[in-house]
Amino acid sequence: MIKPAFQIEVSDISDEELLQCRLLVEVTPNAFTYVLLNQRNMSPLVVKYFQLEPSKESPLTDTLQELMNGDTLLKRPVKETLLVYNFPESSLVPESLFTTDTNRQIIDTLHGNLQKGLILTEKIPWWELFNVYRISFELHHLLQQTFSAGKYWHYYSLMLKSFKMFDSTEQQDCIKVIFYSDKMVALVIREGKVHLAQTFLYHDTKDVAYHLLNCCHQLGIDQESVRLLVGGLIDKQSSLSTELHKYFLRIDFEEIDESIKVTDELKELPLHYFSSILKMAVCA
């Protein structure tokens, strides 16, 4: 049985409570996270994060099947289920240029055509953008079987939607970064417009600094004045945090919005670990 790397869970969750809940599931190549949010009182009942190690002998779909079979909460009925794909094979297309005829060509050009996969698209609310992305047939089929009534989103789309709802500050330039154990997802907003949404792999702190400084250089952003909004698996006293403070003067660790009830269970871990996914669960 696959055990979570960390979890927060309210005890004795009733069937009645679950039927007031939105379940948000995030899948990445190496992680699985889910949140149960009671929409009546905006209280998170469960937050679980699993670190995965798929291989040729045990591919991602097999690992996920084992995980979901072993978690009884995922088998209980809820009000609504949202499935979020956090995979890098994505492209944001301006609404004025979007046409379904070119979707596969865009993804194949930007990310190669070795992986055929399923091409999905969605209009991003509050932005004049479409997200075109590719997901493996096997993974999509598995999640459709497991969550038959689930609705699907790409992580970048919900990241943009939640940014507009919770984090946007007029025309202030901002780089929002969510850290995972082996990668970071960066969203760059300049003069109120999206300039980048991209996933970067990293091995050490210098890789992180390089990618972020390169974003500033390529996009003409002043690293001393830009707001760096940080969340995910990063500790405030870590070497990674120290490295970021060498180059950026305005660093904020992401907070949970006041609309979300901060329970005693949530306080057991740093709130910025899961603030981003909770915001997504609210706005999805």
Walkthrough of the structure:
The protein is α/β, with parallel strands linked by helices. It folds into 2 domains: 1-167 and 257-284, 2-Layer Sandwich (Nucleotidyltransferase, domain 5), CATH 3.30.420.250; 168-253, Protein of unknown function DUF3822, C-terminal domain (Nucleotidyltransferase, domain 5), CATH 3.30.420.260. 28% of the residues lie in helices and 32% in strands. It is built from 8 helices and 14 strands. It has helices at 15-18, 60-70, 103-111, 137-146, 155-167, 205-219, 239-247, 275-283; strands at residues 6-9, 21-27, 31-38, 43-51, 80-85, 90-94, 118-124, 129-135, 151-154, 174-179, 183-190, 193-201, 227-232, 250-253. The strands form 3 sheets. A 6-stranded mixed β-sheet has the order 1-4-3-2-5-9. Helix 2 packs parallel to helix 4 (137-146) and helix 6 (205-219) runs parallel beside helix 7 (239-247). The radius of gyration is 19 Å and the shape is globular. The two termini are 30 Å apart.
